[in-house]
Design a protein that fits this description.
Blueprint (H helix, E strand, L loop, with lengths): L4 H5 L5 E5 L4 H12 L3 E6 L2 H13 L4 E5 L5 H15 L4 E4 L14 H30 L2 E6 L15 H21 L4 E8 L8 H7 L1 H6 L13 H8 L10 E4 L3 H6 L1
Parallel strand pairs: 1-2, 1-4, 2-3, 4-5, 5-6, 6-7
Amino acid sequence: MARNIKTLFDLTGKTALVTGGSRGLGLQMAEALGEAGARILVTARKKDELTAAVAHLKGLGIDADWVAADCADPASIEMLCDTAMKHLGHIDILVNNAGAAWGAPAEDHPLEAWDKVMNLNVRGYFLLSQLVAKQSMIPRQSGRIINLASIAGLGGNPEDMQTIAYNTSKGAVLNFTRALAAEWGRLNITVNAICPGFFPSKMTKGTLEHMGVERLKAGAPLKRLGDDEDLKGICLLFASDAGKHITGQWLAVDGGVSVVVAG
């Protein structure tokens, strides 16, 4: 008998690990998963931000905790996975969200900055997905992996944006998502990606100031930037049984910006 829609979206009894979960888009997605009933473990590098994030989540009635880790460092990623398994018992949902950006003209982009972006935005996603799959999802023959890409990975940038490493990394995340979905589908592990557009956050503050908020709003068909709710629906869809037949896909959440660019 088919389940009703509330049951399909219900995450009661599920567990979720959210990287970059102390603020911004990561915290928004942690809220969504927790509000649907999942137990949440958020991770980032700064303990003070994590403490504040967990206090916020608990204030919403969400079962949440944190562990500090650097998702660009293989040893720290291994510690994170081990700690998450001890705390949660198993990991049903992994949200790969921790990311970095760097603005510089392509001809002058520092190599160390390129490596910093790639190590966190691509290698970190791979290493954590690999460990979580080995320790929890493959043995249980079940899992949901959600990768944060970006509309910056769908094509070029405006000339004045100049984020070649970030764009490249997010394009890689999209194909990483497709390749992993194809390989792990037989294990009942779905892998999907979200491509946010412009959302106000600490990481995007400089870009928004440089390009102009009103200009960016004007270029979007919906004439707005993303807000504190706009990733919740798609995150919950990809994480829940409502999306159990969706894998290897991405969805732009950008107010229509990518439609205009594509046209």
